[in-house]
Amino acid sequence: MDLRTRISTSLKQAMKDKAADRLSTLRLVNAAIKDKDIAARAEGNEDGVGDDEVLAILGKMAKQRVESARAYEEGGRLDLAEHELMEIKVIEEFLPRQLDADETKAAVDAALAEVGATSIRDMGKVMGVLKAKYTGQMDFGRVGPMLKDRLSN
After folding, report:
1. Residue 34 in contact with residue 22, Cβ under 8 Å?
2. Which domains does the chain have, with CATH numbers?
3. What confidence tens digit (pLDDT) does each residue in 20-53 have?
């Protein structure tokens, strides 16, 4: 079952279960996907976005909620932070398992070997390989500095 179908099925189930919080989160996810579909169609891609792009949308939404929850906690609004954390749990149901630090390091090592990267100029190639294989499974914001450190030595 593709990602869109899983999200749609979960949305319908949330309606049947009258799970208001879950339903609102899934509706936000659906709206974000439809916005990207519309943008893709405007660029000539009649099929809309694929699963890779949907994963990127979900990852971005989860990251936004993590930042919001942190800001709410710092501001003393624990009720709002709790709501954001609930939304993160719903979104993460559709994301693949995140790689831990050791798995990320191994993936970076494999990508460096595959590309034959020797200098910082090869960073784009390595990131391309990693994004092709691990979209939604690793935080590329953390991988970038790790790559820079490895390639600058």
Report:
1. no
2. 3-92 (1.10.1510.10), 101-152 (1.10.10.410)
3. 999 999 999 999 999 999 998 888 878 778 888 8
